[in-house]
Amino acid sequence: MTKRKPARFSATKAVKANARERVGQPKPARVVDTVPRTGREIKHKPKLEEIIRQEE
Question: CA-to-CA distance for 18 and 53, rounded, in angstroms?
């Protein structure tokens, strides 16, 4: 059997490994809620037609 070839040196991986060793693992990403926010109709100005209908 042939020997495994050593992996090429990657400066990025070395820096990240060093940072993880000193600071620790980063926190996992937050999960975004899929529930729609309330009050979306309030954010839009009423249309001119709707204002006229309310006055009548």
Answer: 67
